[in-house]
Amino acid sequence: MEALLRLTAMEVRLFFREKETVFWTFLFPVLIIWLFGSMFGEQKFNGRGFAEMYIPAWIGANLLSTALFGVGTILTQYREQGVLRRLRATPVRPVTVMTAHLLQGALVFLISALILVGFGMAVYDLRLPLYPGSFLAAVGLAVFALYPFAIFATSFAKDNRSSAAISSVLLNVMLFLSGATFPLEMMPEFIRQVAKILPLYYVVDLFQATWNGSPLWENTGSVGVLAGIAVVFTYLAVRFFRWTSREM
Description:
The protein has helices at about 1-15, 20-40, 50-80, 85-90, 95-125, 130-155, 160-175, 190-195, 200-210, 220-240, and strands spanning about 45, 50. It is mainly alpha-helical and about 250 residues long. The chain has a two-stranded antiparallel ribbon with strand order 1-2. It has 10 helices and 2 strands; from the N terminus they run H-H-E-E-H-H-H-H-H-H-H-H. The model has no long low-confidence stretch (mean pLDDT about 85). Helix 3 (about 50-80) packs antiparallel against helix 9 (about 200-210) and helix 6 packs antiparallel against helix 9 (about 200-210).
């Protein structure tokens, strides 16, 4: 436990030293919400206001972003720089390393989510979730689904550049096909079906549902899929975790 806490605290400090990362994590989503608000702020989506639909969706999008770039690519960078090889010489286990990054990423995500909610309440009269307990449970489930997914997705990258490329492709595809950027009702039927193979689709669906109108237990489809993703990709992330580039 002591090793886990020390690793987590170290990763949090390193994150806040990177000013560009802080900007893209905390301020860029606010700019996106402001941009879409200037275009769609007066419109209704399925009878809901702009803020009630877009802010929960972008909380999910930001969760995926922090998972891919704040955890997946960082682990690849550490492997390339030999940091993980040096950690391997210590009693620290792979699961401890990944758990520390998961906790650091979850803390960063929580701060970014609070900033988004505060901005929505101040600018767009965003109301709090109708089912706050269900929404928080949905966030916890999404964290345990997307972070192992991100670690596994970048685990086979040869270097930090290829890891960043993988993360960029995954993030952009899911942003546009999950309902986080444009409502899926605007998309052709084929695209709507493709969207259902993407993890972010179920995150956005569950976040919007628990924020606006139904508790967690009425969304068993999305809950079941995310739980399955969490179990499968946690196993795969631990199984294929690599300490050094030579193991690739």
